[in-house]
Amino acid sequence: MLKVKITSKALEARDIVSLELLSLDGAELPAFEPGAHIDLHVLPGVVRQYSLCGSPLLRHGYRVAVLRDPASRGGSAAVHDVLNEGDIVTIGMPTNLFPLAVSPHSLLFAGGIGITPILSMAQRLSRDCASFELHYCARSRERMAFLQEIGNSLAPDQLHLHLDDGSPEQRLDVQDILQRSAPGSHLYVCGPAGYISHVTDTARRLGWDEARIHFEHFGNAAAAHAGGDRPFRICIASSGRIVEVGAQEPATVALARAGLHVPVACEQGICGTCLTRIVEGVPEHRDMYLTEREKAANDQFLPCCSRAAGDLLVVDL
């Protein structure tokens, strides 16, 4: 954990604010690579992950940008309404689950606030004189963060804007873009779940292998699933203690109520902070962190969102 100071808070686009974070003593912050994120403790007990959208070369500070979510569970609302310049906040060390790979050409797709990790990627690729193109999509220009900065740092043929309220000829045609890409190209996509699915499903339909498809989600619709849930029990393997999990609560909440602390951050099955080993039983996986192969093994689950497929899970806590 690191203590940093918010030295700047700025409105970057409609409903998007950025925070500049500097160390308290002016020392350099830990290095990071494009695609990395940090945990930001926005309120006591409220930790959220935000992509670092500054240049990895600028070690004196970090920058994050946050979209106000109308259905905020406390994170984005606090960033917009509670945190201010001069505040001291706690952050975690940079973690990268969305790294750049070496490839002959990179296709970067950003939908709305998904520009945050993609921006650092574009700046790194531009600095390295690598072959790439950025496709930035939004409902309108007023919702595009860092647009001037991107325009100043990228060549005209590298940046492509796609606006829902724009002319038909500039609309995003993922299939055409992918079919025209150089052999061996890699694609990177971040944004709303539907946007990510559209890009990645198109790539798979065109025969792209998974090793060349990279994406990062900001939310997990399956984690918010509300219908058909039922109570189940968790048995602690080391003690035999039984914890009852209600139909309308996450397992992490039930465990905390019983005095068993499982570290959590995103609470949506995205970051992997609460990953817990399963000794016996079959989970109902709802996370976006484990691979399909890892889920099929049924030897671990994320209790912040996943549940039991049966009546009992025995876990290693």
UniProtKB/TrEMBL annotation:
Region forming the signal peptide: none
Example GO molecular function term? metal ion binding
PROSITE patterns cross-referenced by the UniProt entry? 2FE2S_FER_1 (PS00197), 2FE2S_FER_2 (PS51085), FAD_FR (PS51384)
* SUPFAM superfamilies reported for this sequence: 2Fe-2S ferredoxin-like, Ferredoxin reductase-like, C-terminal NADP-linked domain, Riboflavin synthase domain-like
Domain of life where this protein originates: Bacteria
Q: Which UniProt keywords apply?
A: 2Fe-2S, Flavoprotein, Iron, Iron-sulfur, Metal-binding, Oxidoreductase
Q: Give all residue intervals belonging to the 2Fe-2S ferredoxin-type domain.
A: 232-317
Query: What name is this protein filed under?
Result: MnbB
Q: Which organism is it from?
A: Comamonas sp. JS46
